[in-house]
């Protein structure tokens, strides 16, 4: 079998660009020889990261990057997939990861250098939410040009759940003693206080830490290396949707459009609502990060976003060099003036066209109105998920185990029912035999047969007189006493 050293450059390039190879693998290959080092020096890597997957993918990736920061220099594209803990599937309850002291020191210095905030470091140290590792990874990927967040799942627990359910899941995932201090630290009746103190109210409000970093950073995230050179950004819809909101907060859009090198931006399922209060928050309230500058974005997509009339002019004012604009809107369920669809489409077109008069031609403007269920989000076609076969095997093993337990439980219940029927038949036979014995035997009419209760008077063959059981007799003195007469 030929080695990598003897392969021609064309075949070697095809092998090194295969999806299974991670930046860590490329770094190991480059260290084998001078030829492979020169060949992989300028190679760009596409990487798919998996949030909260039980394989601890993002945690293992970050520990590798902290050991050898050069591995992150090759990352050119990031695709994010979400694997939150599902209350119905205990196999998805990703256990807590434990950091080493020198790793936490490096992470803390990175958070301080790029103003990520102390709260992000506390969450990373906690070891439950790998989504908090994404801002740190962006600080270590200076050559990143493509970022695809995919169909996001902000909540740490998938779907609708209660605080008690979340605490039960987190305690099951806990690998330290910190998760078992509930009765010591807090009152048993105030579980909300415990939930917020351990994992933060932002978890409950389902706000991504990437949003928090962009909102609290003085430069709006422009100082983060992974965002400073970002050219292509894609944000999918939120799934599952929250009760009080139809999508993720639209206040992130001006932050992304303010990045210095952004060229294409696609936003699916944004909503002009405040994630903390659930009230309407216009996009114009978050435009201060632009400082009067125009965005460098050339292609802009707004798919299924829940905006009002005044939000579209606010977004159009941020643009100035659009070459292509596409907007597919649906009827807002919470803020709608009642205008016809044609009037809304005309309003959007007439808003973006004057703002990009020199670069945006009418044939490059697409504005449509579709129902919400017809707006389909298509994930990235080149997602690489190496754990699919392993997950399928584990899920199948779990289903087989559950099916086996159900069959055993059913057989046990049937056996208990069968045993109870046999016991009832045996009891009926014993009662029938006793009845036959009493009917055929002379002892049924015998006086010695005690047919009454213990507290009732009964007859014996020694006292045929019924009145002899209770008598009175004279006693010396002035009083008479009545009592039972005993027999010797």
TrEMBL record:
Annotated keywords: Coiled coil
InterPro entries documented for this protein: F-box-like_dom_sf, F-box_dom
Coiled-coil annotated spans: 390-438
Top-rank taxon: Eukaryota
Pfam family, one: F-box-like
Signal peptide span: none
Ranges of residues in domain F-box: 5-43
Protein name according to UniProt: F-box domain-containing protein
């Amino acid at each position: 079998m030929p080695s990598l050293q003897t392969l021609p450059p064309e075949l070697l390039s095809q092998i090194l660009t295969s999806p299974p190879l991670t930046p860590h693998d490329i770094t190991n290959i480059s260290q084998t020889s001078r030829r492979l080092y020169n060949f992989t020096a300028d190679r760009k890597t596409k990487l798919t990261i998996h949030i909260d997957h039980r394989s601890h993918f993002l945690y293992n990736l970050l520990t590798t990057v902290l050991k050898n920061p050069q591995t992150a220099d090759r990352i050119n594209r990031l695709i994010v997939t979400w694997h939150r803990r599902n209350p119905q599937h205990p196999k998805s309850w990703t256990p807590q990861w434990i950091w080493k002291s020198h790793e936490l020191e490096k992470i803390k210095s990175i958070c301080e250098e790029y103003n990520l905030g102390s709260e992000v470091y506390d969450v990373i140290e906690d070891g439950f939410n790998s989504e908090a590792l994404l801002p740190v990874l962006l600080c270590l990927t200076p050559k990143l040009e493509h970022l695809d967040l995919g169909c996001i799942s902000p909540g740490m627990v998938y779907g609708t759940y209660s605080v008690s359910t979340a605490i039960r899941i987190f305690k099951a995932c806990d690998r330290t003693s910190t998760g078992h201090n509930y009765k010591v630290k807090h009152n048993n009746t105030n579980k909300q206080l415990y939930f917020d103190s351990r994992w933060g109210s932002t978890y409950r409000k389902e706000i991504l830490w990437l949003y928090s970093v962009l909102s609290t950073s003085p430069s709006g995230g422009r100082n983060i290396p992974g965002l400073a050179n970002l050219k292509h950004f894609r944000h999918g819809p939120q799934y599952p949707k929250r009760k009080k909101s139809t999508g993720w907060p639209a206040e992130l859009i001006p932050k992304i459009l303010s990045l210095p090198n952004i060229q294409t931006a696609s936003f699916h399922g944004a909503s002009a609502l405040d994630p903390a209060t659930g009230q309407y928050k216009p996009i114009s309230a978050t435009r201060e990060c632009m400082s009067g500058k125009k965005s460098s974005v050339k292609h802009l997509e707004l798919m299924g976003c829940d905006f009002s009339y005044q939000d579209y002019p606010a977004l159009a004012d941020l643009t100035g060099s659009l070459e292509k604009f596409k907007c597919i809107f649906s009827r807002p369920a919470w803020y709608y003036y009642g205008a016809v669809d044609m009037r809304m489409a005309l309003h959007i077109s007439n808003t973006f066209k004057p703002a990009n008069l020199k670069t945006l031609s009418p044939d490059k403007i697409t504005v449509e109105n579709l129902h919400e269920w017809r707006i389909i989000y298509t994930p990235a076609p080149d997602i690489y998920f190496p754990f699919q076969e392993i997950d399928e095997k584990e899920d199948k093993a779990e289903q087989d185990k559950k099916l086996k337990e159900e069959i055993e439980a059913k057989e046990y219940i049937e056996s208990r029912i069968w045993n109870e029927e046999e016991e009832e038949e045996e009891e009926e036979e014993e009662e029938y035999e006793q009845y036959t014995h009493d009917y055929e035997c002379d002892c049924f009419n015998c006086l010695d047969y005690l047919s009454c209760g213990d507290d009732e008077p009964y007859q014996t063959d020694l006292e045929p007189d019924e009145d002899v059981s209770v008598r009175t007799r004279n006693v010396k003195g002035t009083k008479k006493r009545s009592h039972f007469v005993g027999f010797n």
